[in-house]
Structure formats: structure tokens, C-alpha cells
Amino acid sequence: MTIDNNVLRERTSLLGSFLGEAISRQSGEKTLHTIETLRKGFIQQRREPNEANKQQLIDFIASLDNQTLKNVIRGFSIYFFLANLSEENYLREQRQAQRLQSEQSWEGSFRHTLLECRERNIEPAQMQELIDQLKFIPVFTAHPTEARRRTTMNILQSLFTHSDGLNLTQNSFAYEQAKEQTAQTIDLLWSSDEVRTRKPLVYDEINNGLHYFNASLFNAIPKVYRNIKKAIVDTYPELKDYPLPAFMSFGSWIGGDRDGNPFVTFETTELAVLMHADTVLRHYQVLLKKLRRQLIHSDTIVSVSSGVYDKIKSYDELDERVFDYNLDDYSNEPYRRLISIILTKVKATNRRIQSKGTDIEAEKDAYANPEDLLEDLRIIRQSVNTHDTAHSDGLLLDVIRLVKTCGFHLAALDIRQESSYHGEVIADIFASASNLPDYQTLSETERQEWLTSLLKNPGTPLVYTDNLTDKTREQLALMNSVATLRKLVGQATFGSYVISMTDSASQLLEVLLLMRFAGLCRIDDEGQLSADLPVAPLFETIEDLKNIDKILPTVLDNPLYRGLLQNTDNTQEIMLGYSDSSKDGGIITSAWQLYSAQQTINNIAEQYGIKTRLFHGRGGSVSRGGDSTHKAIAAQPAGTLHGQIKVTEQGEVLYAKYANTNTAVFELTMAITGTLKACSTRFVVQPTELPNYEALFARLADAGEQRYRELTDHTEGFYKFYSQVTPVQEISLLNIGSRPAHRKKGLPSKTTLRAIPWVFGWSLARFTLPAWYGVGSALHSVKKDEALMKEMNKHWPFFSVFMSNIEMAFTKANMNIAEAYSQLCDDEPLREKIMTAVTDEYMLTNSGLNSLLEQDSLLSNQQNLASSLQWRDAYLDPINYIQIELLKRARQQDTPNYMEHGDLNVEDPLIRSINALAAGLRNTG
Questions:
Q1: Is 585 strand, coil or helix?
Q2: Which residues have CB under 8 Å from 326's CB, separation 6+?
């Protein structure tokens, strides 16, 4: 897709002019002049670097008080919002134009992908089999890289709609109206606060996650199904009557992820489930009311199936109550009459759930499960289809597909907890029973034996003491809450129980035993174990990834556990952590170990005759696995997906993908077609030289890891440097996420720092170090094999996608800005030592990438991306220098000169600088 940057710049400039008018009108011409001085000054600095002029700009920033800096940052931040929105809208238009002008549409679209399938001789029966096994599960998570408020998201969504009209003929009435609405909305954007004034509660984060369903996904989900069905009919007419399965489902960690977040309790998990149900059931009510207005067919004119009347009769008593105001209402419009009953039952279902089952009246009318609602809707559709196919395949079909996808639970809530937490709880329970040993002193083998023995015991285990730790009480309360909520809302309410930092087989058995206390795990009379939630080990560190071949076989060799899998579709879910493995050993070794781990898992699965579903814990930044979902999925190791993939959607990626319906449709489509391709042997073809490629990548990984660990593990004072030159200390104090940024208090270290703030801090300071450090040394170490590397880049998708993403992330690094941040380190020898290492590696990486990719400069082969990053840089520069000034002020709050910068607390503009940089850089965490 070719982007006309002149057109894009023109549109962005128009929105920018509206912003300038709003700033001038509301905050004064002086504020606008200050913003323009910095904007033009840094643009000029980019064009013609001059140290004296740059110092003047830095001094000018230092002269401004906190209130002025707040306004300046807001100006740049909102400009990035508008520029991102303009770019998103323009790309949507380009896709639409391409679809109208071409039979194939864009690469990754359903039509383009299915035509490729035809060309590769995938027969209709094979295509049906591929779609039948297809399952794409995006899981929303709350992470501290998205600071904007829900109010701001709503305004930007309105702006996206209004700005659509700016593409019409200029000077037309519609164009002038769109200009006026856009200007008014931008005026509102400037007058509202785009960041939170308090630290968010988990409740706020749940609400933010739900925002995307109301904003886009409730509309996008049916559109995705419609688009793939149309593509199937066009390219595989033999499958015209093929009923599409619900191949999409959604998950969430928000309110279920308690790893390191003390604010997520069993009450919070309950709250999340109730909010999920309320959101989806209220939306069904809106759709049912629309349906009632549409299906106005009269049985005096059309023939209505007897099943509709039979269903109404089966609800005789409820029917009388619903129409007690007039028993003859809709008497000749049976669809409307039945929909009114369905609507009442959906309302009662929500009341029953929100009352946690205590509303007896609601219980009487409520649906027991989503299948019963689907049955009623299908009865209507089967009848409508006999006389009005347009309406049977319209909104009615959309509602059916939405209910199949979202049920009453909306998104399956995963539970996640760190492995050592369960160990402590089990140890406490063992200590309360006189017939059980001291769990902490048991070897790994002994733990497995004791846990297996207890799991074999019939009945629900009991605890005979109240003398339990708070952790144990909380864990048992959680298990009981999960069991209750599953009965209340539905079996799909919860997804998996994810065990982070898994490093032994006993840790899976611990969770199963804890489930037994709530009846979530049971053993039948024949000694077969079953569990209501699948237990998913999360392998995160380099060491854990390397040990998968020891941990998985050990647990699969346990006959009791193997029997458990046979009762759950013989499928083991396994989560792979991109964040911590990258933080631990660097980007190259992380990529290699994740690649190897998938192959290891696949081999083990074949050996034991089980299926696997891989859960990819990816973030927004490249160092945390973020990149084009379509390419990333399609480039997975051959044979590792088996039709299913589960992937986290984190941080600002949620907003970028799901803020608007059209973008959400595009992103879901790209992910689904990527999964479809990765599951077909016609697309995933092993390069003939793959063993040689893998051997070379392994060498790259070893060299990259050695260089990375020299800096991060073996450089004394490195974490002091990191904590001083990045805003990581300040991130933990700001109103971004409910979860603490550190596992423990004190000076951050690799083990105490969470992966998200680790990446976020380096990104804000423009080092982007986790995304590339070690790459240059690795490339240099195999320089004599560069010809083979170039061949790998052409013929091995995994490698080419990886290197392309490294190039993109590396281009976002800016050593001039990083050098300015480094001056915040008060230890000059330490600063010089680390900056020398970083600069040397930067130079090696720059030359190594350009040589491998056979280009003169970075992104020479990705001009659209290069242009987008280039214009952003000039606007990011002033924010970075402002942030440096604010960090100095924040760290001098106890000094006598602190009040020279005005009455406004420095934390206010500081959080805004983080928000602005995240908006400009787009994938910071």
C-alpha cells in the first residue's frame, strides 16, 4: 500500500490548525507562541543541527514554569493524538479504495488470503477443516503504558467520526459542517483533562478494557464474520451453505491478574465478572430493541413457522406478564412478541447475575445459559429465512454470532498468580494438618508424590483450622468465588489459571489441589481427574524456557495429570513470556529461546499424543514481542499452532487496535488470516537450509546474550545508572496503572523490576535499549557468514520478520537524546563507562543492520514507516528535553530553589510528558 505523505501531512496540518486556534482561544496567544517557538526550533534543529541553537532551546525550556510546561506538553500530546487519528483514518481509506479498485484487496484481507488458498490448491473440504479448527483469542491486559482517560478516548472516537467528512469535496456544505464539528471537538479536547488526576483503581482498568467493546468490538465482531463469509462465498462457492463456527473469543486479565498486584483480590475478580456480564447483556438489550423494530412481519401477510408460536406458548405465564398492559399487542406480529419476551428474559438474566443469584423473581425469568438464548433466536431466524432472507441474514444473524462469541460472560477472565505464592499457601495448608509433612522441606519428587496422592482422594478436602495466613484465606476465597461465578454466569466465564514463573511440575499440581477445595477439580469413581479451569504454565525466563523439555514431560508422565487432559479435549495450554525472557537475556536470545521452546513443545506434544494451545504473552514494544500480528503469527515455527492461538493485547496497543470499529475489523482480520496461514502446510514451507539457518541463529543468540549480560548483569552500578537516567522511579509514582512497577522496594534490579516499566523507561529516554542491545555484536560475530544471513533474510520468514522489527525499534533510538538523559546520572565515571558501551553497540548495530539488509540507511526499504517516524522525531525532541528538565525538578523537590518553578506540582506536567511520549512513539511498552 502506497501512502501519499503530502496528503497525510495536509490533513494532519488541518487538524493541527484547529488545535492551534483552540489553544490560542482558551489558553492565550502566549501559550501558543511558546509551543510554536519550540516546535519550529526543534524542526530547524533537525534540518540544520547547531549546538548553540539547541542550547538556547534547552535554556528556554528551563526558564518556563511548571504550568507553562504543562500547557506546552498538552499541545504536543494532543497533536500526536490528532496525527495518529489522521494516519489511522487515511490508512482505512486506502484499504477501502484498494478493495474497490482490486479484486484481491490488501494482503492479509480475507479475500486476498482465500484467493491465495485457492492458488495453492487448498480444496473446499480442506478449507472448511482449516476454519473449523481456527481459534483466535486476544486477551486484554492492564499495563502501565496507557495513561489516557476513558473520557479522552470517547472524544477521540467522536473526532474520528467527524474528521471522516474532511475527505469530502472542499467548500461543500457537508465539508464545512465536518470542519465545524471537528473544530468544536478539538476545542473540547483541549478543555478537558487527557490524563487522570488520581491513581487508577482496578475498577477503572476494568472499565477501560470494557470501553473497547462498546467503542468498536460489538460492531466489529459481526463485521468480521460477515467479511469472511462473503470471501468464502466468492472464492469457495462450494461452501456457500457452510455455517461459520465462532472462531473468535476474547479474554481478559483485568481483575484476574493478581501476580504482583495486591489490589486484585477475590472481590475484584467478582467485580470484573459482574461488570463483563452487565456490559454484554445491556448491549444485547439494545440489539433486541433494534430487532423488534425491524422484524415487523405480520402473520396475516407472511407464513410464520409453528416453532415461533410454540416457543411463545412455552413462555405462557411470562407472556401474560410482559403484555399485561395489552394482551393483544403484537398479536399478529409474532416475531416482535417473542423478541419482547426474549428481551425481558435477558433483562432478568442480568438482574440475576448482578444480584449474585439472590433475586428470586429474576431467577424465575432468567436464561439458564447462553445456549437457551441462542435457541430462541435461531427459532426466529429459521422462520424469517423462509420468507425474508435479507432480514434473516442481517442484524438477526449478527446478534446470534455475537452471542456465540461473547455469551453472558463477554470475555473469559484468566486467573494469574506467581508460582511461589501457591507454594506458600500449600505449605500453610500442610502445616495445619498433623498427618501431612513440612511441605517446604520436601524435594520436588516428594512434592509431586504427596500432591498426586491428595488429588486421588475422593471428595472435597476440608481445612480443620481457622489459623491460616491471609494469603491462604485469600487463595481459598478466590477458588470458591470462581466456582460460584461459573455457576452464576456460565462455564466460559473463566479462561485459564496461568502460573507465572513456572519452573517445576509440582507447581501445576499445587493449583489443581487448591481447586479441589472449591470443587473446581474433582476425581470420579474410576479415578479420573477433571478440572473446570485449564492450568497453564507460563515460562518466562531464559532458564525456564530452556527447561521446558524437563518440566513438561515430568508432569505428562504423571498418569493422573494425563487423565485430566483427556477429559479436557486432550489439550494443554502453555504460555510463553516475551517480556521477562527479553529482560533476562536480551532480544536475540529471547527470540531464539521462544522459537526453540515452541518446537520443543510441539515435539513433546507429538511424543505424548496431546494437543497444545500456545498463549503468547506479547507486549506493545518489540522487546516484549510486539509487532505486526499478521506477520508475527504467520512466521511462527511450522506446525506449532494447530489452528489455535491466544495472545495478550497490552498497553497502548489496545487503543491503537480497538479504538474504532474499522480499525478493529482490520486488526482482527489480519490476526485471523495470519493464524489461518500459519496452520496450513501450503503456506508454512520449511526452507531447505533450515538446519543451517537455525544453527546460525543460535550462534547469534549466544553472542547477543553475552554482550547483553556484560552490560546488565556484570556492569557494577548499571541499575543505579538506569534508575537515574530514565523516568522509571517516577513511573511508579504516577497515575498510570494500579499495579506497582517494582516487585520489591529499593534500588531497581533485573529481578525486582517488572518487564513493562523496564522497557517503558528505556523507551521514554530514547535508548530503546532492550529492543536492540546485543544485536550489533551478534551480527559482527558472524560477519564471515553474512552471505548465509542474507539468504536467511530472504527465505526464512521467522528471521526476516524478527530483523524487520529490530530495525524499526532501533530506528526509534536517538543517541543525542539518550546522551542528554544520561547527564541525569550523578556518577560521571559510571556514566561514561555505560554510555561508551551503549554508543559502541549502537554503531555496531547500525552498520550491521544496514549491511545485512543491503541498504545505505535505516528503513530504506520501508519508506512509509521511515516517513512516519521522521516527522514524529521533530515533535518528540521538545517533549524529551522538557521531560529531562522536569525530572531534574522532581528530584530537587526538597531544595530551597524548588518553588521557583511556580505553584503547580512538577508531577502534573511530568505525567503528561510520559503520556505525550507514549502517544508519539506509539509502542513504548
A1: helix
A2: none
Q: How confident is the model over 483-509, as pLDDT tens digits?
A: 999 999 999 999 999 999 999 999 999
Q: What is the pLDDT of residues 754-804, one digit of tens each?
A: 777 888 899 999 999 999 999 999 999 999 999 999 999 999 989 999 999
CB 925 within 8 A of CB 880: no
Half-sphere exposure of 56 (CA within 13 A, CB side): 11
Q: Check if the beta carbon of residue 304 is closer than 8 Å to that of residue 353.
A: no
> Is 583 a catalytic site residue?
yes
Q: Which residue has the cell 518487564?
A: 755
Name the nearest CA neighbour of 793 among 862, 732, 852, 841. Answer: 852
First to last CA, the chain: 27
Task: Choose among 459, 420, 453, 458: nearest CA to 435.
Answer: 453
Three-state DSSP class for 7?
helix
Half-sphere exposure at residue 909, Cβ-oriented, CA atoms within 13 angstroms: 31
Q: Which residues pair with 138 in a beta bridge?
A: 647
Q: Tell me how far the alpha carbon of residue 94 is from its chain's centroid.
A: 25
Grid cell, residue 613, equals: 494451545
Choice among 415-419, 522-526, 813-817, 921-925 with the minimum mean pLDDT: 921-925
Query: Is 143 a catalytic site residue?
Result: yes
Q: For the packed helices 29-47 and 66-101, what is the interaxial angle rounded to 10 degrees? A: 60
Distance CA(495)–CA(311), nearest Å, equals 33
pTM over 0.70, yes/no: yes
Cα separation values, 194 from 155, 519, 659, 739, Å: 10, 46, 15, 21
The burial of 334, by beta-carbon neighbours within 10 Å (0-12 exposed, 13-18 middle, 19 or more buried), is given as buried
Q: Residue 30 carries which side chain, given as an amino acid letter? A: K
Return the amino acid letter for 116: E
Alpha-carbon gap, residue 712 to 693, rounded angstroms: 28
Measured distance CA(469)–CA(422) in Å, rounded = 12
Report the distance separating Cα 413 and Cα 256, nearest Å.
6
Helix axes 815-822, 718-725, angle to 10 degrees: 100
d(CA 863, CA 128) in angstroms, rounded, equals: 38
CA–CA dist 831, 557 (Å, integer): 52
Name the active-site residue from 229, 409, 422, 583: 583
Whether 507 and 423 have beta carbons less than 8 Å apart is answered as yes
- pLDDT winner (highest mean) among 107-116, 140-149, 249-258: 249-258
Could you give the angle at the alpha carbon of 196 between the alpha carbons of 193 and 200, nearest 5°?
Answer: 160
* Cell numbers that stand for 144 in this block: 502501565
- CA 802 vs CA 298, 625, 697, 902: distances in Å: 60, 10, 11, 47
Q: Which of 54, 70, 143, 345 is catalytic?
A: 143
What angle separates helix 66-101 from helix 907-921, to the nearest 10 degrees? 20
Nearest to 136 by CA among 683, 634, 801, 594: 634
On whether the CB atoms of residues 482 and 518 are closer than 8 A, the answer is yes
Q: Which of 870, 890, 887 is nearest to 812 (CA)?
A: 870
For residue 421, the number of C-alpha atoms closer than 13 Å in the C-beta half-sphere is 21
Say if CB 441 and CB 409 are below 8 A apart.
no
Distances (CA, A) of 584 to 504, 709, 758, 807: 19, 8, 11, 21
State the DSSP string of 399-465. Answer: HHHHHHHHTTTSSEEEEEEEHHHHHHHHHHHHHT-TTS--GGGS-HHHHHHHHHHHHHS-S------
